[in-house]
Design a protein that fits this description.
This protein is mostly helical. Helix content is 79%, strand content 4%. It has a two-stranded parallel sheet. The chain is rod-shaped and about 130 Å long. It starts with a helix and ends with a strand.
């Protein structure tokens, strides 16, 4: 073989070796870059698919205690609100109607104040949609108390408003219960961090 041709072929072989090494290196870096991008996308999709909010056991326990305490207070508020003007009301003979009204309003006021205190105390520690629902319940209860205090019981609108307020109250309490259950069900407990 001709020496010049031999030199050209050996040079091309060396260049081919260098080029193949370059392509292997370039391919690996592209592959690594693609792998990192896929891992990042996978992590983003995985986190979006996870429905639960991960909290520590101590935080879960505390949030659960808050919901229990609020719910107990809410039940007391519900009953004191509904007892303001029950549909089948009976006034004892030894009491005047104004005394009964004052007692009922006092009982409502105590339950409402306890509920509002807990609501304000714990607002930062429970879900926003639950807070919105609890605020709505409190508003309905206050409307019922004002209607009871200032409307004439002989007016038919008095009883229509009582029924409207009762329906709204019971509906919103059911909604709030579902929101609390949904929130508690969505929490996934992870080990406590020391």
């Amino acid at each position: 073989m001709h020496p010049v041709l031999n030199d050209i072929l050996s040079t091309l072989g060396g260049i081919g070796f260098i080029l193949s090494g370059f392509f292997v290196y370039f391919g690996k870096t592209q592959l690594e870059r693609l792998k990192k991008k896929l891992e990042a996308n996978n992590l983003a999709v995985k986190s979006k698919l996870e429905q639960g909010v991960h909290v520590t056991k101590s935080r879960f326990d505390r949030e659960f205690e808050i919901y229990q305490e609020l719910w107990a207070s809410l039940v007391e508020l519900k009953f004191s609100t509904l007892s303001l003007r029950p549909a089948l009301d009976q006034v004892p003979k030894d009491k005047h109607e104004s005394e009964i009204k004052s007692e009922r309003l006092r009982r409502f006021s105590t339950a409402n104040n306890n509920f509002v205190t807990l609501l304000n105390q714990y607002t930062p520690f429970f879900a926003d949609d639950v807070n919105e629902s609890l605020q709505g319940i409190n508003k309905i209860c206050r409307h019922e108390a004002v209607d009871y205090q200032y409307q004439d019981s002989m007016d038919m609108k008095y009883w229509e408003r009582q029924q409207e307020n009762t329906d709204k109250l019971l509906s919103e309490i059911d909604n709030c219960g579902r929101l609390i259950k949904k929130r508690v069900d969505s929490l996934s407990v992870v080990g406590d961090v020391p």
